[in-house]
TrEMBL record:
Domain N-acetyltransferase span(s) in chain numbering: 1-109, 20-106
Keywords: Transferase
Coiled coil: none
Superkingdom of source: Bacteria
Protein name, as recorded: GNAT family N-acetyltransferase
Organism the protein comes from: Brachybacterium alimentarium
GO molecular function: acyltransferase activity, transferring groups other than amino-acyl groups
Classification via InterPro entries: Acyl_CoA_acyltransferase, Gcn5-rel_NAT, GNAT_dom, GNAT_YJDJ
Length: 109
């Protein structure tokens, strides 16, 4: 599934980032100018998604790439009615800074 990049922009990002689900690889990919600049690795069943690890290309760190990935993944999982389990330390930290995004999310201890 491809997400409209205009709906998933981070303040301070000059260029658009498209987010696409790559289920064969078990990851969401952030794409800028045709290049994957970040990934969010997951395991998914019909009813649940486990968010395992988030990676941003070092050249694009600090540009909001990971935030775009997290927001998009959470939105799609909620829309699909999936339970969301967070294992990734980055996402756990991100959720502390964005408590409005915690709805329906379980953070693994």
């Amino acid at each position: 599934m491809s997400i409209d990049p205009d709906d998933h922009r981070h303040d301070g990002i000059d260029e658009q980032i498209a987010v696409r689900d790559n289920p064969a690889a078990g990851r969401y990919e952030a794409v800028r100018r045709g290049t994957v600049v970040g990934t969010l690795i997951y395991e998914r069943t019909r009813r649940r998604i486990e968010l395992i690890h988030t990676v941003t290309d070092p050249a694009h760190r600090g540009e909001g790439v990971a935030s775009v990935l997290v927001r998009t993944t959470l939105a799609e999982a909620r829309a699909a009615g999936q339970q969301i389990l967070v294992i990734c330390p980055f996402i756990e930290s991100w959720l502390r800074r964005h408590p409005e995004q915690r709805e329906g999310v379980v953070v693994e201890d």
